[in-house]
Structure prediction request, 301 residues.
Amino acid sequence: SREEPGSVHIPQAAGKDPDPAHSSPTAGEERGLSRGIWGDVEGVGLFRTEFLFLGRTEAPSYEEQVAAYAEVFAEIPREAGPVVVRTLDAGTDKPLPFLRLPEEPNPALGVRGLRVDRLLPGVLDTQLDAIAEAARRAGADVSVMAPMVATPGEAAAFAGRARARGFARVGVMVEVPAAALRASWILREVDFLSVGTNDLAQYAFAADRQHPGLAGLLDPAQPALLALVEMCARAGLEAGKPVGVCGEAAGDPLVAPLLVGLGVTSLSMAPVCVPLVRDALAGLTLEECRERARTAMDPAR
Ligand code: PEP
Ligand code: MG
Prediction:
């Protein structure tokens, strides 16, 4: 499904790649992977778990969640790479009626994503337990990450609870500009960042991501958005930790080179986007990607 995009890791150079496994269309075969979506990607960069339960009025039990996650994990060959599971991102554009969240005047700025834990502690703990158990049953290599994290304190609290369940790699999404500004501090708490450019653009430009008249502001090549991505990528480089992009921008063949030029280490996208993005990157050196990023961020734009 679109919600289980492949993750493409960016090697040292974007194209003219020293490691053919990252640019050859037959790389998957060479690595013994089956053809199809698994042949050309490295794992799953964003498993949107809330999509399993959209519209539900009754909460999924622990056992139901274990079964649902294990079913997905079973479809992913272990050799395909790790699976990054995002904990429930409820609210605004992704309603989960079973949570019975209170009506809010500004739901996009309210209790959504990780913030649900403030109102309903237990939902996150049960989910983390279920993901851990499903990973164990399926023998899957699973990381977890939280959506809508705003502060290093939130990242630390999430990481503590995930690590207590044995997850070796714990990350958070950067979707709130405050988190990008404090990326270095957040990276002291977690193992990786995944930049959600859909929401990061919405919150950086104060422009509703569902508003058809504001598409220009939400353009992922906007210099201010790229500057926030760059902050995260630099923080990752300094910390020696991966920083990916999992918003729609990563699957855009014109934007992906900019993200690579800014220093992101992986791109997560819908499988259908992989061939075009791979082609775009295979034709460019890392320095050319950097040059494109510099041009895109020209203050005159
Ligand atoms: C994002 O905000 O960029 C993201 C990947 O999360 P979603 O689109 O599910 O909000
Ligand atoms: Mg988001």
Remarks:
- The first strand starts at residue 6 and ends at 9.
- The two ends are 36 Å apart (CA to CA).
- Residues 43 and 276 are 18 Å apart (CA to CA).
- The pocket of phosphoenolpyruvate (ligand 1) is lined by residues 46, 48, 89, 175, 196-199, 246-247 (CB under 6 Å).
